[in-house]
């Protein structure tokens, strides 16, 4: 059974992510590192963070790995610190946008990039073989805490940004890992800033840790009531950022497309890396400036490697992941948000731009299904369509079916027990018809799998 999904290991505590499991994963990680390696560890705000960290760190130290602990910081900053301070790797204990009862483990190599699939496979082999390194009692790893390295990240980000407009900004960390630091950073950038949900709380009492239109209604209400220009909202571990304005939620595809356009105009590099989930709004947003879209597999690690290998100016996932090469090949949330504000005169510039582009309709929904069955169900759907001799199917990551002016993606989530159905169309009629078709197809194969 595979342990890693599209973004690390995730599961419910303690059924899937238990202290015993994390101890062994720590030993497996350490066994794959050189002797006397030094890695850095951090967590988001989840209530299970300390028990998981303690277990995992014990496993690492038991195979002679030295550990520096950063406590609660955003994933963006952990990955940056790994490379900047020459660590041999990093571990982020997080379930990102998943519900509070989930937790997980995300691994970073010495370059501050997510572990490759081959590196993850090596960890799985060690875990299942149980042939961990054995060390003497006097050669166990050492444990230290660190706190000053974050300042280097902040200084670096601020040195790259020069915002001229005095925007009134509402910061919503959602009680996650960006609490406190986001507010401080945006104030230092010269913005008028107020915050909500700005304390560490692993219960996530005020909203779901996944920032999206449905979970940000209260944020949007406060934005309108207090007349903020924009709300900048983060997920549980601070590797996703999304935006709202006086009209409501700024769509996923709209935000990534506008920022990608600005990035091309600033760098003159026309390549953008993204995934099969990203809609054609991105293509339409950059075609007039010679932009080229390269699509690959879902997952911020996959996008990071796609960005680096193709020398793209930016890597993006429509959920709010931004890979900025000059910051590092990992998701960053602070630079893209500040970069957006640096490149507009007023917040309405974003929506005004998209008025010039023919409308595209986009819908993304999920159907709950057991983790153990989700990949087999999607695979069976692919076999079914292949038997029908459909020649418009792309199976790079899930099943993407291309129609004349629409597409449908059916894909097993790499982070949650569900199958996602994504549809984009030039008209609402096709959007709804294709979505209905996709849902019925998935439910049909779920039912078949249960009999």
In terms of topology, how is this protein built?
Blueprint: E1 9-12, H1 19-31, E2 38-43, H2 49-62, E3 66-72, H3 75-84, E4 89-93, E5 102-108, H4 117-129, E6 143-145, H5 149-159, E7 168-172, H6 181-188, E8 192-195, H7 217-225, E9 230-234, E10 241-245, E11 248-250, H8 252-267, E12 271-275, H9 281-286, E13 292-296, H10 300-309, E14 314-317, E15 321-323, H11 334-342, H12 348-354, E16 361-368, H13 371-387, E17 393-394, E18 399-402, E19 406-412, E20 418-425, H14 428-450
Parallel strand pairs: 2-3, 2-4, 3-6, 7-8, 7-9, 12-13, 12-14
Antiparallel strand pairs: 1-5, 4-5, 9-10, 10-11, 14-15, 16-20, 17-18, 18-19, 19-20
Helix pairs in contact: 1-2, 1-4, 13-14
Identify the CATH homologous superfamily of the largest domain: Alpha-D-Glucose-1,6-Bisphosphate, subunit A, domain 3
Report the major sheet: 6 strands, mixed
Cα separation of the termini? 22 Å
How much strand? 15-25%
What is the CATH topology descriptor of the largest domain? Answer: Alpha-D-Glucose-1,6-Bisphosphate, Chain A, domain 3
Write down the overall mean pLDDT.
95
DSSP strand count: 20
SSE-based structural type: alpha/beta
Overall CATH architecture of the largest domain? 3-Layer(aba) Sandwich
Order of neighbouring strands in the sheet with most strands: 1-5-4-2-3-6
Helical amount among residues, as a percent range? 25-40%
CATH class of the largest domain: Alpha Beta
Broad shape: globular
Residue stretches low in confidence (pLDDT < 50, at least 5 long) are none
Number of helices: 14
Gyration radius, in Å: 22 Å
User: Structurally, how many domains make up the residues?
Assistant: 3
């Amino acid at each position: 059974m595979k342990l890693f999904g599209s973004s690390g290991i995730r599961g419910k505590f303690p059924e899937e992510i238990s202290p015993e499991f994390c101890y062994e994963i720590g030993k497996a990680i350490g066994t794959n590192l050189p002797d006397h390696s030094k890695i850095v560890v951090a967590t988001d705000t989840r209530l299970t963070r300390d028990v998981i960290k303690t277990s995992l760190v014990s496993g690492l130290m038991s195979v002679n790995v030295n550990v520096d602990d950063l406590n609660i910081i955003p994933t963006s900053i952990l990955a940056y610190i790994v490379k900047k301070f020459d660590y041999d790797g990093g571990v982020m204990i997080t379930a990102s946008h998943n519900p509070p009862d989930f937790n997980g483990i995300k691994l970073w190599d010495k370059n501050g990039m997510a572990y490759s699939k081959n590196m993850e496979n090596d960890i799985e082999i060690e875990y299942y073989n149980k042939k961990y390194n054995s060390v003497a009692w006097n050669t166990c790893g050492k444990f230290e805490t660190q706190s000053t390295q974050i300042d280097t990240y902040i200084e670096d980000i601020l040195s790259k940004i020069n915002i001229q407009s005095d925007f009134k900004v509402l910061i919503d960390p959602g009680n996650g890992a960006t609490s406190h630091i986001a507010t401080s950073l945006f104030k230092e950038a010269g913005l008028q800033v107020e915050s909500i949900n700005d304390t560490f709380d692993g219960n996530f009492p005020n909203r779901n840790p996944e920032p999206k239109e449905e979970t940000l209604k209260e944020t949007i209400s406060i934005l309108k009531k207090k007349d903020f220009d924009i709300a900048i909202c983060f997920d549980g571990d601070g590797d996703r950022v999304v935006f709202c304005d006086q009209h409501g939620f700024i769509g996923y595809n709209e935000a990534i497309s506008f920022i990608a356009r600005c990035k091309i105009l600033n760098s003159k590099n026309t390549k953008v890396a993204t995934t099969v989930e990203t809609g054609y709004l991105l293509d339409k947003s950059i075609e007039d400036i010679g932009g080229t879209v390269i699509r690959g597999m879902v997952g911020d690690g996959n996008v990071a490697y796609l960005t680096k290998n193709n020398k793209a100016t930016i890597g993006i996932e429509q959920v709010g992941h931004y890979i900025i090469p000059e910051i590092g090949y990992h998701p960053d949330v602070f630079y893209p948000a500040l970069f957006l504000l640096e490149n507009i005169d007023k917040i309405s510039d974003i929506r005004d731009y998209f008025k010039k582009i023919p409308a595209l309709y986009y819908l993304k929904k999920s159907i709950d299904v057991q983790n153990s069955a989700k990949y087999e169900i999607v695979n069976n759907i692919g076999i079914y369509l292949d038997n029908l001799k459909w020649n418009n199917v792309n199976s790079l990551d899930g099943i993407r079916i291309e129609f004349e002016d629409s597409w449908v993606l059916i894909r097993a989530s790499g982070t949650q027990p569900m199958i996602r159905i994504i549809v984009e169309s030039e008209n609402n009629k096709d959007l709804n018809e294709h979505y209905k078709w996709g849902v019925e197809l998935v439910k049909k194969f779920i039912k078949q799998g249960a009999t």
